[in-house]
Amino acid sequence: MQLGHDADVSSAIAALCGDREGxxxxxxxxxxxxxxxxxxxxxxxxxQLRANGIQTIVTWDTPxxxxxxxxxxxxxxxxxxxxxxxxxxxxLTGCSFNEHDRTLVMSDEFETPNSLHALTGVAExxxxxxxxxxxxxxxxxxxxxxxxxxxxxxxxxxxxxx
Length: 162
Hints:
Layout: H1 7-16, H2 35-49, E1 56-60, H3 63-76, E2 79-86, E3 89-93, E4 102-109, H4 113-125, E5 129-137, H5 140-148, E6 153-158
Parallel strand pairs: 1-2, 1-4, 4-5, 5-6
Antiparallel strand pairs: 2-3
């Protein structure tokens, strides 16, 4: 499910994206660039997920995802567990959760397959039930995950390409 058709969300994402960088002209997403834009995008994602009964959010502990998770968890009245990777081991901190909590795995963007699979894997290893995946920018790893997971709700605010 993509939110990109919403002009307000698209404008907000544009406000959060800096100039394209490097030879690949990749967009750089910075949720600290505009609190209003971050609020708009995250609130839209939360609205699309409200019916999923999310109880826990699992996300990487980075500035962008911390902002995103804070707003989405506030809107959905759920807890957030932050993932940390050290020497190849991923751990969750930040909240207590119950086995089988309905879980949203979320990031600003999943740049590599490992960034998505590590989060879903650590959630499942803690007996959380992943029912949804969300990102602001769609990426190839997320597209591949969608094709392999027909029973999970996926929300993408905007595709990676303009």
